[in-house]
Predict the structure.
Amino acid sequence: MKVLVTGTAGFIGFHVVQQLLATGEEVVGVDQINDYYDVRLKYNRLREIGMDPDHLPWNHPVQSLSYPGYRFYRINLEDRDAVMHLFEQEKPDRVIHLAAQAGVRYSLTHPEAYLDSNIYGFLSVLEACRRHPVDHLIYASSSSVYGLNKTMPFSEHSPVDHPVSLYAATKKSNEMMAHTYSYLFGIPTTGLRFFTVYGPWGRPDMALFLFTENILAGTPIDVFNYGNMERDFTYVDDIVKGVLAVSSLPPVPSKHWDARNPDSATSSAPYRILNIGNSKPVKLMDFIRALEQSLGKEALLHKMPMQPGDVPATWADTSALRKLTGYQPETPVEKGIKRFVAWYRRYYKK
């Protein structure tokens, strides 16, 4: 199989590519390498898989120096002609679309970035899959789509009509766009709703990274909702296993889907939505204590009210993913945090 992965300079995409290459797949990576956070981290991820950051021309393939089966393209997914040319040239069998403008709070101040990347960029991918059919399109959705929902654990079968951030609204839009293309053009699509992924090489705008940086510097950490938060923290290796297991199982139209009582997670088209998380929510203060133990240093807490766009708790019902693939996360938060801290100290020499 030839697998095209978008967002390969990003956190999850980087780990997905590493695992695909370890299993001998041919991989085509795509990223525009934007400056939402420190691009040096993105370039260093690319170095880990054999790319020379000084030689990454736009819209042209670059061969990995470490893996014969890996090529990388620096492409802006909003450039539909470039994306179409990429599909014409590479003819991927499978697409794992992880590129997106991430971050809930950033969407409050830079809404246009979310429409450009998450809507127009995804449209380019859908159109390319339409013109150059693939066996399966897997794309990143988010637990943020649950918005004002209070019923726990979050189920894919529940309606998600009340997002509380533009980021969440774009991810719900992705799901609706994917369904349209599955229905009209028969493209098998699976949307994966990620729940708070963490681990080595993670994003600097996420809590674990920010907490670690501030605790080591002796700077207070911002603890929102006065610490009364719960998150379904999921270690990146467990996420990658789930993504790759799903990728080899394209959906088919559901024989049981009823238009009079429609299930939002399945369809009469080759379409499905799946949660992918740990299914074991952790209290934020317990998360911070585990980090303090790994760092051997106590945090200074700056407790603050809930931020716009945030939700007090997330909890994934992963029963559908488990039934489909046998998915079973194996990494407890304490172990995952230790691995992240070990990487952070090595990377930043602290």
